[in-house]
Amino acid sequence: MNNLIIFSNLNLSRQTEQSQYTE
Fold it and tell me: Which domain of life is it from (predicted)?
């Protein structure tokens, strides 16, 4: 369960990074 939360958090941070790059 904890791993899943960490994984989703990683995905979220990656998505924000990508959005920053596109901007």
Answer: Eukaryota
